[in-house]
Fold this protein.
Amino acid sequence: MPATDAVPRPRGRTHPRPPTPLDAAYVTRRAKELGADLVGIASADMLNAFPPDPRWPQTPERILPTCRSVIVIAQRIPAGAFRCKSNTPVQYIDMLVLRKMDKVAYRIAEDLEAVGHPTLVSASQETEWAYKRASYGRLSTRHLGVEAGLGTLGLEVNILTPEFGPRVYLTGILSELQLEADARVTEQVCIGESCSRCLHSCPADAVLHFGIDKRACATEAQAFGFGTMLGMFDGLIDGKAEVAALFRSREFFGFWQGLLRVVGSFGDCPRCLAVCPVGNDYHAHLAEVQKVIPEKTPARVALGKQYKAARTTYDAGEGPEIAGLNDWNRRWVGVDGYQGIVARQMQEFKRQQKERSEPVRGAP
Ligand code: SF4
Ligand code: SF4
């Protein structure tokens, strides 16, 4: 243990200085102590070698060339928000979850720097304008999560964690410290086409076959986000909107509220998160209330069946390529395919539930 911190830590920090040399077990334990719900470590070399889309590489080396490891933490979104009648509670709680997650990540970065390892927290919600004209950050947190062994991508390409399904936010902490990486999950966590509940519930018909139409999704997920703001000002410039009417419009109010509290500018639409049956939080708090999907239509059911048939032929080495499941992308979907993780998890959940409800032998 060094006699002094490499970088002085803030006054009042009572946590003992991290041991040296630092290892992955310590970092994981510390992140959980600080409040992270899930923690995994990904190798920067691996992330640099496998960007989600090589045409626009979201890689750590483009941010910090000397990065060796990315510590990925996930914070769950409390399930209560997905039981509400309106989307607003989810929008508000999303912001609280992100704030908490950033604080946890910041403390980890501080700890690592204190013993001499330059470390920084990446922005979990950002868009790099130079990459693509959609929500597309310098790093893809969902892919970071998969590389760090926290889950696999679902039909709607959210990351699905076995513990909390897609109801999580993630962030990456970039460090120059070399840490042992966690193994990727090779079993597909998503039930797949035979479930298609996310597709059935999507108000924007944005769920593709292990892919997403981000622009369509943004109309619901960022109802008062950047696109709406641009539309308002475009209307003004083109003379289609009157200034006074614009300032008194629902859109302008939504934009203002988004500036103040983030509410409305992202994560507006919780539908694909709410209905996904992966995770014990779903079994405990959502299964009953989300069982029926009111948005389900015959057309959406037919599309799910079409996806299923296409997958069967594609997996048999026939039929056209499915982009989301091609050789490059399958590593994030789960190379071994679906093997019943959700059914196993539900059986275990029910067993534990029964155990809890049974009277303890010998108890009065
Ligand atoms: S967030 Fe909403 S609009 Fe976007 S894919 Fe999910 S259900 Fe569809
Ligand atoms: S709702 Fe079903 S198909 Fe969609 S991501 Fe969840 S498990 Fe996969």
About this structure: The first helix runs from residue 24 to 34. Strands lie at 38-43, 69-76, 119-121, 152-153, 159-160, 168-175. The mean pLDDT is 89.
